[in-house]
Design goal:
There is one protein chain. 49% of the residues are buried. The protein contains 14 helices and 18 strands. It is globular and about 55 Å long. The longest helix is centred in the last third of the chain and has 18 residues. The chain has 404 residues and is α/β, with parallel strands linked by helices. 36% of the residues lie in helices and 29% in strands.
Length: 404
């Protein structure tokens, strides 16, 4: 019996809202707050159409998530127990500030990054630990799939399979086809900034930096395909190597097709991926913001999307029996099936469902303590159980090394 605010109205917010509506015994009242209220209204209309028996009460409002006083006003007027932040990563800190001022719990799916610097790390949000502890509030960071479920998988490895994890590889494959020449599966600005940045991985107690997409290998994704995969830097590595100090090497891999990389190289070559503002007809605009405006919105890809996603975590190390071990925990989702269920493509679905699950565990007291936390700091079992219940079945593969 809880009231929550969802901030944002993109593809992930759409999934979070609809999964909250399915889980109406926990989420009794939901306010969707966003800069563009017509998008929130469209989500609510779809809920009424596709989930007419849900008892969850929905409403919408306008909010500027960059504006703390405006956020505080909306939160105080609605009186939620927590805020689910699925807005832009640039807005994490203002929303955390508003939660502290109003005394409500906080959850997001991506860590903070400054708008004018292509850099993301947890230090800005970890700096809030003492303030949330003193306020008796909880902030759960990065509770999507990657980050999010991938850290749960790592904690599950540690709890059930390993005395020590030595080598960790997180793999993310989208083997889908949306029929567009070039499009991104989530916010284009965030997606392109992430891919064009230098890669980074952890090895022997330090970070090793690479050129963008410099390291690759063919990886077999169970039930899906063998795909060329590239090393990127991804935020969950930062917390995992702290919380699992026996890790000697940790890497994150993602698949990209040749056509995608070719388009990206051309766009980068002509300066369209730059975050540096230029003067255009008397106005300042970053080329990447203009590019975002002309590319298809990620949520618009859903209706015609086919194929599957496969995201998992391979761990190698010392098993519970004292022997060397390799184990893989993963999920496979189908774009057409996720569209049938919640009118969303699989990338939005795999991010939105874990956000709902994390919020549910917080609201029901299963995961609940004051402070700022990453998901691997909690018992993974209730989260795994909920994934199986709420549309993200978890599979395991023992003894086969998929990533070299």
């Amino acid at each position: 019996m809880s009231k929550v605010i969802i901030i944002g109205a993109g593809g992930v917010a759409n999934v979070v809202a609809k999964k909250c509506a399915q889980n109406d015994s926990v989420f009794t009242e939901v306010l969707i707050a966003t800069r563009t209220v017509r998008k929130a209204d469209a989500i609510v209309a779809e809920i009424h159409e596709h989930l007419p028996n849900s008892q969850t009460k929905f409403s919408t409002t306008t909010v500027d998530a960059d504006n703390v006083p405006e956020l505080v006003k909306v939160i105080r007027e609605f009186g939620p127990e927590m805020v689910i932040n699925v807005a832009l990563p640039y807005q994490d800190l203002t929303i955390m500030d508003a939660c502290l001022e109003t005394g409500v719990h906080y959850l997001d799916t991506a860590n903070y990054e400054p708008k004018d610097v292509a850099k993301f790390e947890y230090s800005w949000q970890w700096a809030y630990r003492e303030r949330f502890e003193k306020a008796g509030l909880m902030a759960l960071l990065g509770c999507g799939f990657d980050p999010g479920a991938t850290q749960v998988f790592t904690a599950y490895h540690a709890k059930h399979h390993f005395k020590e994890i030595h080598y960790l590889d997180i793999v993310d494959c989208n083997n889908g086809d949306h029929g567009k020449a070039f499009a991104t599966n989530f916010n284009p600005e965030i997606n392109i900034r992430e891919i064009t940045a230098n890669g980074r991985y952890w090895e022997n107690g330090q970070w090793v930096e690479t050129a963008p997409l410099e390291i690759s290998q063919d990886i077999y994704y169970p039930k899906v395909a063998t795909r060329k995969s590239f090393v990127l830097y991804h935020e969950e590595l930062e917390s995992l190597v702290i919380n699992f100090p026996t890790i000697k090497r940790a890497r994150f891999w993602m698949t990209f097709g040749e056509a995608y990389i070719k388009h990206l190289n051309v766009l980068e070559g002509i300066g369209m991926t730059s975050i540096e503002p230029i003067d255009f007809k008397g106005q300042q605009i970053a080329p990447i913001e203009f590019l975002k405006a002309v590319l298809p919105a990620p949520e618009s890809l859903a209706a015609n999307y086919t194929g599957q996603t496969c995201i998992g975590v391979q761990a190698k190390g010392l098993g519970k029996d004292g022997e060397d071990k390799v184990h893989f925990v993963y999920n496979v989702s189908d774009h057409a099936e996720t569209y049938k269920e919640v009118q969303a493509q699989g990338v939005s679905y795999t991010t939105g469902v874990p956000a709902m699950i994390g919020a549910m565990l917080m609201l029901t007291g299963v995961w609940k303590r004051a402070g700022v936390y990453n998901v691997e700091e909690f018992d993974p079992d209730p989260f795994i159980t909920a994934m199986n219940e709420w549309g993200l079945p978890v599979d395991e593969l023992a003894g086969i090394e998929l990533v070299k």
